[in-house]
Amino acid sequence: MDKELLKGFIDILILALLTKEDMYTYEISKVIMENSNGEITLGEGTLYPALKRFYSNGYVEYYWVEKDNNLVKRKYYKITDQGREYLNSKVNDFKRLTLLVNKFL
């Protein structure tokens, strides 16, 4: 899939997943890859900056979960109400854009 085309949709994909459940970064990447049948892969260079931007804008919060008797700590991300509003706005923009593009096809 064209990476340039995907750039505008990464926010929607990540935040939509976080509306279903809190997730850590590897899990987000894995679910997106699985749900897209391998068509979409998000590397660290895409995922971490997006999550950092979401956090800075108040769209997500995070918390740490200790696993394996405190040997492993995972940072879980949780969407905020502000993040849900942002997601709804992006989804509406996507729907409008899809309608416009379809007029030309």
TrEMBL record:
Q: What is this protein called?
A: PadR family transcriptional regulator
Origin species, per record, is Clostridium sartagoforme
> InterPro entries, alphabetically?
Metal_resp_DNA-bind_regulator, Tscrpt_reg_PadR_N, WH-like_DNA-bd_sf, WH_DNA-bd_sf
Q: Where is the signal peptide?
A: none
Domain named Transcription regulator PadR N-terminal: residues: 14-88
Higher taxonomy:
Bacteria, Bacillati, Bacillota, Clostridia, Eubacteriales
